[in-house]
Amino acid sequence: MFSRERWNEILETLNSNKFRTFLTAFGVFWGISILVLLLALTNGLEKGVTAGFQNMTSNSCFLYVRGTSIPYKGLPKGRRFPLKLGDIDALKREIPELKYVTPQNRLGGYMGSNNVTRNENTGAFQVEGHFPEYINQKPMDILEGRFISYSDIDDKRKVCVIGREVVKTLYENDEGVIGSYIKINGVNFMVIGQFKLKTSQGNREEEGNTIVIPFSAFGQAFNTGDNVDWMNITAVDEVNIADLRSRIFGVLKSRHIVHPDDDGAFGYHDLSEMFQKISGLFSILTFIGYFVGALILMSGIIGISNIMLIVVKERTKEIGIRRALGATPFVIRSQILQESLILTILSGMVGISFSTGVIWVLNYLVDLYGPIDNFVNPSVNMTVIFIALSILIISGILAGLIPANSATKLKPVDALRIE
């Protein structure tokens, strides 16, 4: 029930010693601010890191040859062998749970020597040979033109799709890109599209400096034939790619005469396992955020409890008079608890508002100066706010509980005698 006199009394009590009230409230303000900011920063870091996995479907793996580690059927240890296009067809045929199996070959690198020219402009770029399904494994936006198609594969067309950094290096402003030609290691390729990845995470410079050409044209132009450097393998949504690992290895071992126990012959990067490990790591970081923030907040709550004990001691005679006039222990206890709750909740709400402002400034700076690697949109959802409010309410009750019980234990006669 609302009591104006009670609220006036609470405000008068808090204003009686403003500096003490400020110092007491600052502990809760700082604790709740740190809690919200830690969770927001952890969330931003988690979004930034996991967004990198959106560049490649998480239920995928990369596979390549490392060399045999066990002699087998007269063949020596340390033998290296190339993967072949036939391996792609064999995996698709024998493991129907695989959604995409695409080969990849790579030439040069954007940090290497100049390998691409256009008129008088030159640059060092990463040139990759792919199949059309690759766009489903590593989602990208086609800014103009199109991606490679199976007609390009079948006809071994010397066409290419280029990243934005390639355009900036080889072309003048407002110069047409589609239909123009670039020369890769002395071989002319016609540009049919320009792309960018759907996320801005990972190595943005390398991704922007990539040129994609049909796998068949890559083999013909650079004499790699049907050899495959990498396989990009994606399982259907209902099956975890990790569950297919032994079957994938089994097919390749039988085709390349590798010992059945020689898993080390193949390099294997499972994105689903990496994603699960990273998700587990951020679950731990979130827990640490709650734990550290709660500890800091607890120090503020202890401060409020101590101050309320001092307030009760200062008002001992007042409490004695109220008890003598008929105030019940419940009335005395509720007044102390209410004062503690008001002080805690007000300072906590200011802390939440302050941390929200800091988060807004961080997002504004990120938008103003561009994205930061592995850090995106630091924020907290309403669940965190509700949890913070719940912590505030519980903390306010706990902070006032001991002083309130202490106040109700005073006998009116003893309270009136205290000077």
From TrEMBL:
PANTHER family: ABC TRANSPORTER PERMEASE YTRF, MEMBRANE COMPONENT OF TRANSPORTER-RELATED. Residues 21-248 form the MacB-like periplasmic core domain. This is ABC transporter permease. The keyword Magnesium does not apply. Keywords: Cell membrane, Membrane, Transmembrane, Transmembrane helix. It is found in: Cell membrane. The keyword Cell membrane applies. The chain crosses the membrane at residues 21-41, 287-312, 341-362, 382-402. It comes from the Bacteria. Residues 291-411 form the ABC3 transporter permease C-terminal domain. Belongs to the ABC-4 integral membrane protein family.
